[in-house]
Amino acid sequence: MADAIFLALSVITIGSAIAALEMRSLIYGSIALMGTLGGIAGFFLLLDSPFVAMFQLAVYVGSIAVLILFTVMLVKRELIFKKVEDKRRKFVGIALMLVFMVALGSIIMNSGIKTITTDEPAVDFRNIGADFLTYYWPALILMALILTGSVTGALILARREDVENDQRTD
Amino acid sequence: MTNELIDFVLVSVALLGIGIYGLSVKRNAIRMLFAVEIIINAANLNLVAFGRFLPHSGGQTLALFSIAIAAAEVAVGLSLIIVAYRMYQNIDIADFRSLKG
Hints:
A: 170 residues, Four Helix Bundle (Hemerythrin (Met), subunit A), 8 helices, globular, B: Helix Hairpins
């Protein structure tokens, strides 16, 4: 059975996930998304994986959420608060969500996952570091190249040539 | 350990459902990115939970790779949203239908 910390974390995570999608203002929505990401980091701590939890805090709450917040601030004010959605589409979306949750939930509840428990000690995070540098080193290098390429691509995409020319004439 | 694997998997299913709802209902591009983030986090939670209960270090390693790739995806996605916003002066995806610049 789940303990109180788990229940509190799941309420925070799921509640702020709903708030992130349903808040009127996109700024408050992105702050609620930070709550979801932090809640997931808390789940990682409950699962005895502190290294992944810190990575999640550093990458998601530290950089991605701030990046989203700055992007929201670049958008026009009335677009931040504007909420365009179909009533019918919304009902269909809620029905789809419930169907997914009930179907997947009942499949999982009837599967063998329910009986899986463990008494074994958690994986030491030193093993993960050793794995990264031995077995997974090509993947690590590939990931570094992908990150470099995508960040460079993002910078090139978002560049504005007209601003550069304006500054040169000043 | 008092928490069982099924609890974590059920939380992950709930997050996946919320993400699917957001992707199908919202028309705001940034909100759809929020929904994608929620789905990716549900997947990461599953990876770490199964890695804890097996127990095997592969789950955590794969979750770390997944987080790094998601960071790259968000950077590119946000810059695409900014380019589209500059082009159409809007972030409604119904306006992004034409490929013409």
